[in-house]
Amino acid sequence: MSGQINTLINTNLPEGFKKIAIKVKEGNRITDEECLLLFEKGSLGFVGSLANYIREQKHGDRTYFNRNFHIEPTNICVFSCKFCSYSRLYAHREEGWELSIDDMLNKVKSYDGKPITEVHIVGGVHPKMDMKYFIELLQKIKAHRPDLHIKAFTAVELDYMFRKAKLSIEEGMKQLHEAGLQSLPGGGAEIFHPEIRAQICADKVSGEGWLHIHEAAHHLGMASNATMLYGHIEKYEHRIDHMRKLRDLQDKTNGFNTFIPLKFRNSNNDMSHVAESTLVEDMRLYAIARIYLDNFPHLKAYWPMLGRQNAQLSLQFGVNDIDGTIDDSTKIYSMAGSEEQSPTMTTSELVALIKQAHRIPIERDTLYNEITDYSKDNLVIAD
Ligand code: V47
Ligand code: SF4
Question: Domains (ranges, CATH) in the chain?
Answer without folding.
Answer: 59-373 (3.20.20.70)
